[in-house]
């Protein structure tokens, strides 16, 4: 056959299982890769690991959508939880025909008959409701993930600035020491308030020094 071969599923839920597999693989690879790269730029490896897990979660969209639909149909008593067994039972009852990993009605008129029933309209309405519910949940989850990503990026940026900023040299001599010509300095963390540190020194409190000559 000319052209590219169309990939067909051979078992039920093959696409969902593939989505879960891809999500897990992406989460593992992303976490390992990002947690290894981030320290090279002075960023915590934990941030890279969390971002990798978030990437994997985005890849699980199809599986999450399928799960929401299954739960809605189960709660509404429209279908059993083990949907594959229900479809196979319909195949044994000569209502459906299995083709690869999918199912079709044995005849178009049978499909139209079930679709015209009130329950068919209700199920279709339920499916639309579940689709709307999933879209709302997806927007909520996406918003939360974006906020988490921004918070992690901000923390990583602050960590990078602190780790790459020059330390602060502060004069911490007390007034009496200055009168005697004694000058003491301390190397403190970047952006440290030297006046506050000098007051701590006058009160005899220990200073959070990096090194003190």
TrEMBL record:
The chain crosses the membrane at residues 20-40, 46-64, 140-160. Keywords: Membrane, Transmembrane, Transmembrane helix. It comes from Pseudanabaena frigida. This is Uncharacterized protein.
């Amino acid at each position: 056959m000319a052209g590219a071969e169309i990939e067909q599923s051979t078992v039920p839920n093959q696409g969902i299982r593939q989505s879960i597999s891809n999500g897990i693989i992406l989460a593992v690879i992303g976490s390992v890769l990002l947690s290894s790269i981030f320290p090279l730029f002075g960023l915590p490896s934990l941030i890279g690991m969390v971002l990798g897990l978030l990437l994997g979660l985005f890849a699980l969209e199809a599986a999450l959508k399928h799960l929401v639909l299954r739960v809605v149909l189960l709660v509404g008593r429209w279908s059993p939880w083990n949907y594959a067994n229900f479809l196979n039972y319909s195949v044994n009852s000569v209502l459906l025909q299995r083709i690869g990993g999918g199912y079709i009605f044995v005849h178009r008129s049978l499909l139209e008959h079930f679709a015209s029933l009130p329950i068919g309209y209700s199920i279709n309405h339920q499916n639309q409701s579940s689709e709307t519910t999933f879209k709302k949940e997806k927007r909520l989850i996406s918003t939360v993930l974006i906020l988490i990503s921004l918070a992690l990026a901000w923390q990583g940026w602050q960590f990078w600035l602190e780790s790459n900023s020059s330390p602060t040299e502060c004069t911490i001599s007390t007034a009496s020491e200055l009168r005697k010509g004694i000058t003491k300095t301390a190397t403190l963390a970047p952006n440290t308030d030297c006046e506050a540190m000098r007051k701590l020194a006058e009160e005899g409190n220990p200073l959070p020094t990096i090194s003190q000559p």
